[in-house]
Design a protein that fits this description.
The complex is a heterotrimer of chains A (233), B (339) and C (528). Chain B has helices spanning 3-22, 39-53, 69-77, 92-100, 169-182, 184-196, 205-214, 224-232, 267-277, 280-288, 319-328, 330-337; strands at residues 30-35, 56-61, 86-89, 104-105, 127-139, 161-164, 200-202, 219-223, 237-240, 253-261. By secondary structure, chain B is an alpha/beta fold. Chain B is globular, with a radius of gyration of 22 Å. In chain B, 52% of the residues are buried. By secondary structure, chain C is an all-alpha fold. Chain C starts with a helix and ends in a 7-residue tail after the last helix. Classes of the chains: A alpha/beta (233), B alpha/beta (339), C mainly alpha (528). At the B-C interface, helix 1, strand 1, helix 2, strand 2 and helix 3 of B face helix 11, helix 12, helix 15, helix 17 and helix 24 of C.
């Protein structure tokens, strides 16, 4: 069964092709890394999947449901049931850690006790339980990353999209967080689409690596992974 | 700010707005009046009307500074769906325009019976009351001062006179009145000779009065209220009623005028307000107020500086004709002023 | 409700409140002119008066614009970017004239320079007669309008300066002094903002009629109102206003065409500190110079009003005569500001995110309406809304609020758009992927992030609604006048003491929300 499917998707901005004839199928529980130099269109692929932009031609499906086709957005981003960690993390500065996590849960009309339980569980997983009431600005860079991860995962999305989230961190922290992501993946078994320009990140995180250049897929490589586990998702 | 404070602020805003918007909507009978007479003088009269009759007055005021554009334009713009019941004009020419445009409704008030026919429309489309006069203000240092508007053209008064810009206000009315009496040719000749005689053109009647008071000019045609005002301040000026001599054309009187509005929403109350404004009592109050207006009813009690109308020789004009003439001579006046 | 629907609704409000009335009026006027074979225009052009008026109008607007930009830009730099002492107080002081109707300043200067004024009292009537001649004409109009519109340039300069990322200036400062940095880096970066300010000042002075009427200076708008008053001729009056409309349209069009594309992305990080110019030894000198300017332009005219009003009975009479109007003014202004904030926020959001393709047209429309003379909008509103079926709008204060929306949406939408510019799109996108619908994203994420900007937009909206005279005077329902209108009408033969006291009340009402804000925001200021 395919979880996510791109079928010859193209997208251009102001007459310049950002993504061209992009096709890719993703199985549940896979960890896909999209790798390429800046401006190759890899972020555009994520934004197409999230629904912030609409493909000019081609189609995208999530869980066998067509979400976009030929210039039409059939499902709005809020209806696609995805989680995303942004390059700038986009933690809402006016809300506490709890507020950041709860905002999406409220939209899903979960009861207060369910929300509390989910937030507690995910914070325990990312080891941030004691920061429930903290504001994002009071946290260190690594802690902010964990909160961003937790905020995306607490919704138990169909897939987690990450847009170069580690690029601004020092090497040590970068390495620690990669381990963290793998650990969480093992625990929760989510499907991951990870965009980066860093070969080391891609080697460690991906079960498959999509090499992109100038808006096109150059090649796709599978790599053996010690941590590939099909989870309960 | 906390969320609660925001909600509080928002609620307070709503409540205050609610109060302000609805506070005045009572069930009491109301009358809507548009007023071109200065608010300072008109408002106390309307307050008295409220007190006396229990009818709530809702007013729209205007000012000469805005060339009375507000109220007249509203009346014209609202023609198809009138909001006003009564218009209190500060001169009868506007009232005459309203009559021409089909906005005035005829109403002959019982209180208008004693007002001389010159100052009202025979069919009751407008009725005049408390008036200003167009008088010569003369500096007291001048011996044997002028007694006629013709002084403007006499060599003796070369470079001595001042007149307000005739494109505005009562000065336009005065010129138009002279044109209706003398005919266009003589009117134009008068203005041209006046100019040749070195008349000074001021921006307003008030400024003319100041020129005369400071002695920069020796005399000038102004409204009687401007004159009384300077006299009360103790300035060295005296008011002269022009052209009172045997065979003279008389002094131009500019009365207030009240108009009932065609299809106004509160006709009954409108008539009560018209009656009230045309009463001797209202005229007496306006005579004693700072505007020092001249009552048109004979024998109304006035302070010493306000004359009795029956003792004056009055310029006999048809105000509707004056209104039409004002529009007609506008291009000539513009040219005359130098535009 | 969907995003598209709500935004379309907001746009419709602006169109219905502002565009439709103006179009109806212009349509009627053109039809009437066509009927008479464009008699008004032919007469105007034949008399040569058109050229006199155009000359006066252009002279007034150009000199006012040159002065405000020439003084306002350096003033903005000193107040927004240097270590000048008292700069916040000075900024507030210079901003006050914008909070009051321009005619108040004209009245005040008349009290100083007129024939019976303070100057005459001190220096004798001979000098006062010259100063009075000067006041009643181009000079006086420029003085009053430049003082009124100076804050626009100053505040826009300050706002633009604070949005420049510091690295541009830091890079320049490594190689050159402040003079060169300001001239070659800072000023070019904020030039588009200053140009917009210049265009707005030019258009506002072009459309201003209250001050030229009071000071008897003939310009196009005055001619338009002379048409109203002398001939009661709507067609001709609109026709007289039409050249103004065309000039406005043309200038804004050029601004949109040439300047908007040149505006730079100045976005900066939330923690970036703007560089401050150290004035060192020149601090005192500059403070004295600015102090003198503020003294002449603001303190003197306001001071004269305060002195005039400080007689025993003046405030008592002012409250008795204008108390109800004062309360109404504040309530309408608060309601107007709230409506403006709502519509302006949605329009600003639309302009910033370009959510609907017509965002550029909307921006253009709001600025166009902002620069139209108030009475033009008012006459349009009357001809559109005064029907028996719509009397629930026309015969109630709703018509005033509608007029505010028509005239001032540009202010709130531009302010909201520039506040939103500082919010990265990812903030809303993060909520969107989390499954949160648009309405809740706005309320839960976007609005809290720009709340300071929204408070500022509300206050500016409040101040402009509060001071409005030209539009309100023509549409207020009987018995519902506002304080500026009442003061304006009481000016004819009201005592100078009463008028001065009413003006002081107006200034106080305009400053009230600032005071409330200062007291309520202080404890939580650090949160932001």
């Amino acid at each position: 069964m395919k979880l996510i499917e791109f079928q010859s998707v193209s997208k251009s901005y102001n007459g310049r092709l950002a993504v061209e004839d992009f096709s890719l199928s993703v199985e549940p529980g896979e960890r896909i890394v999209i790798l390429g130099p800046s401006g190759c269109g890899k972020t555009t692929v994520l934004r197409l999947l999230a629904g912030f932009i609409t493909p000019d031609t081609g189609s995208i499906s999530i869980g066998n449901e067509l979400v976009a086709r030929d210039g039409q957005n059939l499902r709005q981003p809020e209806e696609r049931d995805l989680g995303m960690v942004f390059q700038d993390l986009a933690l809402w500065p006016h809300l506490s850690v709890k507020g950041n996590l709860e905002f999406g849960l409220r939209a899903r009309k979960l009861s207060a006790s369910d929300r509390k339980q989910r937030i507690h569980e995910i914070l325990r997983l990312v080891e941030m339980t004691e920061y429930l009431k903290a504001r994002p600005t009071e946290l260190s860079g690594g802690q902010q990353q964990r909160v961003a991860l937790a905020r995306a995962l607490v919704l138990q999305p169909k897939a987690l999209l990450m847009d170069e989230p580690l690029s601004n961190l020092d090497e040590e922290l970068n390495r620690r967080l990669r381990k963290e992501i793998l650990r969480l993946h093992q625990a929760l078994g989510f499907t991951l689409l990870f965009v980066t320009h860093d070969r080391e990140e891609s080697a460690e995180l991906g079960t498959r690596v999509v090499f992109m250049r100038s808006g096109r897929i150059e090649r796709i490589e599978s790599q053996p992974s010690p941590t590939a586990v099909v989870g309960p998702n | 700010m906390t969320k609660r404070r925001w909600i509080l602020l928002f609620t307070v805003t709503l409540i205050v707005t609610g109060i302000a918007c609805n506070g005045k909507h009572s069930t009491a009978p109301t009358v809507v009046v548009y007023v071109s007479e200065d608010q300072v003088f008109a408002e106390p009269i309307l307050k008295d009307f409220e007190k006396e009759t229990g009818i709530e007055v809702r007013a729209v005021y205007d000012t000469e500074e805005a060339k009375s554009t507000g109220v007249m334009n509203r009346l014209l713009a609202e023609k198809d769906n009138p909001q006003a019941d009564v218009y209190w004009a500060n001169e009868p020419m506007r009232a005459a325009v309203l009559q021409q445009r089909g906005i005035a409704a005829p109403y002959i008030s019982p209180n208008a019976a004693e007002i001389p026919a010159t100052f009202k429309d025979a069919s009751g489309y407008w009725t005049g009351f408390s008036a200003r006069a167009r008088i010569l203000l003369v500096n007291k240092s001048v011996k044997d001062g002028p007694h006629s508007v013709l002084a403007y053209t006499e060599p003796r008064w070369k470079n001595k006179g001042v007149v307000a810009n005739p494109l505005f206000g009562t000065t336009t009315a005065e010129m138009a009145a002279l044109f209706t009496i003398w005919g266009d040719d003589r009117g134009k000749a008068f203005l041209q000779e006046t100019k040749k005689n070195g008349v000074r053109i001021s921006t307003s009647n008030g400024e003319s009065a100041d020129f005369v008071a400071s002695g920069e000019s020796e005399f000038g045609l102004v409204d009687s209220d401007d004159a009384f005002n300077r006299i009360q301040q103790g300035r060295p000026v005296e008011a002269v009623y022009p052209d009172q001599q045997e065979g003279g054309i008389g002094v131009l009187i500019v009365p207030n005028a009240v108009v009932a509005i065609q299809r106004g929403p509160h006709a009954t109350q409108a008539h009560k307000l018209v009656d009230f404004l045309l009463s001797r009592e209202t005229e007496r109050k306006l005579a004693y107020a700072n505007c020092a207006q001249i009552p048109l009813h004979p024998g109304v009690d006035t302070p010493p500086h306000v004359p009795h109308i029956e003792k004056l020789k009055i310029m006999s004009v048809n105000y509707a004709e004056v209104a039409a003439k004002m529009q007609q001579i506008q291009p000539f006046l513009k040219e005359w002023v130098g535009y | 409700m969907s995003r598209r629907l709500v935004l379309t609704l907001a746009v419709s409000v602006v169109v219905v409140a502002g565009l439709v009335p103006v179009l109806v009026m212009v349509g009627q006027s053109l039809a009437a002119e066509f009927h008479t074979g464009f008699a008004y225009y032919r007469g105007l052009l034949a008399s040569g008066r058109a050229w006199t008026l155009a000359g006066h109008s252009l002279a007034l607007s150009s000199i006012t614009t040159l002065l405000t930009v020439g003084i306002g830009t350096p003033l903005g730099i000193l107040l927004g970017k240097s270590d000048l002492p008292l700069r916040r107080s000075l900024l507030l002081l210079f901003a006050i004239p914008m909070a009051i109707p321009p005619y108040v300043l004209a009245v005040s200067w008349f009290n100083i320079l007129g024939r019976g004024g303070t100057l005459a009292h001190w220096l004798g009537p001979a000098l006062a007669s010259h100063s009075s001649d000067w006041l009643f004409g181009l000079g006086g109009c420029v003085l009053v309008l430049a003082t009124t519109f100076l804050p626009i340039v100053v505040l826009i300069t300050v706002a633009q300066l604070s949005s420049i990322g510091p690295s541009y200036e830091e890079a320049a400062r490594l190689t050159s002094g402040w003079t060169s940095t300001l001239w070659h880096v800072t000023l070019p970066l904020i030039a588009p903002g200053i140009s917009l300010a210049a265009v707005v000042v030019f258009l506002l002075s072009l459309g201003e009629f209250g001050v030229p009427i009071f000071l008897r200076f003939d310009v196009f708008p005055v001619e338009s109102f002379a048409q109203f008053s002398a001939f009661y001729n709507f067609g001709a009056a609109t026709a007289a206003a039409l050249p103004l409309g065309l000039v406005t349209f043309l200038l804004l069009f050029l601004e949109a065409l040439f300047l908007r594309s040149r505006s730079y992305a100045l976005r900066r990080g939330p923690d970036a500190q703007t560089m401050v110019i150290a004035l060192k030894s020149r601090r005192t000198l500059l403070l004295v110079v600015l102090g003198i300017i503020a003294l002449v332009l603001v303190v003197l005219p306001l001071g004269v009003l305060i002195v005039r009003s400080s007689t025993a009975g003046a405030f008592h009479e002012a409250i008795a005569r204008g108390g109800a109007s004062l309360v109404r003014s504040m309530a309408y202004a608060a309601a107007g500001a709230t409506g403006l904030l709502l519509i302006g926020f949605l329009c600003g959001y639309l302009i910033q995110t370009r959510a609907l393709p017509l965002w550029r047209k909307l921006d253009f429309l709001t600025v166009f309406l902002f620069t139209l003379p108030g009475p033009v909008i008012a006459i349009g509103l009357i001809s559109l809304w005064n029907r028996s079926v719509t009397s629930f709008v026309y015969a109630t204060p709703a018509i005033i609020i509608l007029g505010y929306l028509a005239q001032y949406t540009a202010l709130s939408s531009r302010m909201c758009a520039s506040a939103l510019e500082h919010v990265p799109p990812s903030m809303e996108e993060a909520a969107q992927v989390a499954g949160v619908h648009w309405g809740r994203r706005l309320v839960g994420i976007v609005v809290p992030l720009v709340r300071k900007g929204l408070v500022a937009a509300w206050i500016v909206g409040y101040v402009f609604c509060l001071r409005d005279t030209g539009m309100t005077m023509l549409v207020y329902p009987p018995g519902h006048d506002t304080l500026p209108v009442r003061t304006f009408t009481l000016m004819a033969n009201g005592t100078p003491e009463l008028i001065a006291a009413l003006c002081i009340l107006m200034v106080a009402a305009a400053l009230l929300p600032l005071v409330i804000l200062a007291t309520t925001l202080r404890p939580t200021a650090r949160m932001a």
